[in-house]
Amino acid sequence: MERTKFGFYGLWALKIVAGLAFIAAGAAKLIGAEMMVQTFEAVGVGQWFRYVTGIIEVGGGALLFVPGLQAIGAVLLTATMIGATITHLFVIGGSPVPALVLLVITAVIAWAYRHQLPVGGATERA
């Protein structure tokens, strides 16, 4: 399927927004920004989970720009945002809207690169 110029540049815009957002948020978690430490303290799972989440966010954000691995990065980040949304709704409170916006963006990216994902043990080509 051929992409339009609008679709090509729109997808790049989404990747840039998501990539920067996740790399920044993940870095804040990894360096121990006070707000992140407090948030994960409120979650109650332990600070180790802040590091795991930070690694997933930085790694997933970077994968959005690696040819052939964009879908994996987007799926990891989509799953992370599902968890963040559930956490906001049922554990720590606060608005889930930022997590939902990033969830939609990463889901769109994952859909656009779905041909990179293994399907039934084989890789489907578009």
List keywords for this structure.
5 helices; mainly alpha; 2 strands; 126 residues; two-stranded antiparallel ribbon
Set out the fold topology.
Blueprint: H1 5-31, H2 34-43, H3 48-63, H4 70-92, H5 97-112, E1 118-119, E2 122-123
Antiparallel strand pairs: 1-2
Helix pairs in contact: 1-3, 1-5, 3-4, 4-5
How would you describe this protein?
The protein has 126 residues and is mainly α. It has one domain. Helices cover 73% and strands 3% of the residues. The protein is built from 5 helices and 2 strands. The longest helix has 27 residues.
Class based on secondary structure composition and strand pairing: mainly alpha
Count the DSSP helices.
5
Helix content: over 70%
* Main sheet makeup: 2 strands, antiparallel
| Oligomeric state of the chains in view | single chain
H/E order of the elements? HHHHHEE
DSSP, total strands = 2
Radius of gyration, rounded? 15 Å
Low-confidence stretches: none
- Number of structural domains: 1
Looking across the biggest beta sheet, what order are the strands in? 1-2
The rounded distance between the terminal residues' Cα atoms is 7 Å
General shape = elongated
Q: Give the overall average pLDDT.
A: 92
